[in-house]
Backbone:
């Protein structure tokens, strides 16, 4: 009797499987593909930095008196400590537009060296320091960037700006506009705050310079360079 009842149960199960279409298809799990996360890297930012700046001027002047022809070959160098403020807009992780302003701290003295020639013959030299100097500069830059990692960027600065250098006794020594460029790197250690270091060439130009001598003032040819090394913090809104 037990054997007959087991056969009936097996037969009923086989009939049910046949009515259901034969084989039982396995249930496949649904695969959910997560949507890509789009990071908006654009926005305004501001920053503040300490700058070490060096101005180097190579000058040449010549003049006549009643009998002799004089030539002067010299160097006029000033080292500045300065503060730099920046503001910009980052369009994406590859490009930004940035403005900067520098102002010197304290009143550094210039180091001046000059060789004198009279009628082509060496006549002596001077080496001295003096004067209280002030430096102001600004620039506007296109800032191409390359993200090496999610936190670390390298970048360049390409733009145009102005440099002014003055001295307490003679007044304005230099006021020049020029092409400016720089290279640097930044590291983002929070979502909004990053540290940066860069080198910016603010001036590389030939012009006229008033050379001050005990016997008078003379126009001199002047090759001027001014560069800064900047270390600072940037905050992105």
Residues:
């Amino acid at each position: 009797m037990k054997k007959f009842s087991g056969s009936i149960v097996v037969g009923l199960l086989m009939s049910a499987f046949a009515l259901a279409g034969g084989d039982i298809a396995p249930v496949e799990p649904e695969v959910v593909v997560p949507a890509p996360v789009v990071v908006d890297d654009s926005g305004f930012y501001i920053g503040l930095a300490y700058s070490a700046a060096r101005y180097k001027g190579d000058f040449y002047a010549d003049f006549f008196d009643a009998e002799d022809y004089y030539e002067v070959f010299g160097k006029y160098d000033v080292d500045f400590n300065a503060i730099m403020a920046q503001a910009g807009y980052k369009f994406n992780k590859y490009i930004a537009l940035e403005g900067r302003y520098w102002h010197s701290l304290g009143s550094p003295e210039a180091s001046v060296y000059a060789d004198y020639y009279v009628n082509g013959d060496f006549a002596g030299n001077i080496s001295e320091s003096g004067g209280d100097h002030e430096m102001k500069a600004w620039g506007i830059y296109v800032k191409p960037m390359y993200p090496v990692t999610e936190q670390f960027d390298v970048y360049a600065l390409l733009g145009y700006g102005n440099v002014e250098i003055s001295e307490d006794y003679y007044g304005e020594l230099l006021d020049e506009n020029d092409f400016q460029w720089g290279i640097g790197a930044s590291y983002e250690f929070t979502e909004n705050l990053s540290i940066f270091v860069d080198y910016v060439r603010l001036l590389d130009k030939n012009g006229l310079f008033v050379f001050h001598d005990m016997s008078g003032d003379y126009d001199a040819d002047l090759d001027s360079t001014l560069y800064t090394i900047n270390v600072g913090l940037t905050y992105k809104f």
The longest strand covers residues 69-92. The beta strands are 43-64, 69-92, 95-105, 110-118, 121-130, 133-147, 152-167, 171-188, 193-213, 216-236. The radius of gyration is 36 Å.
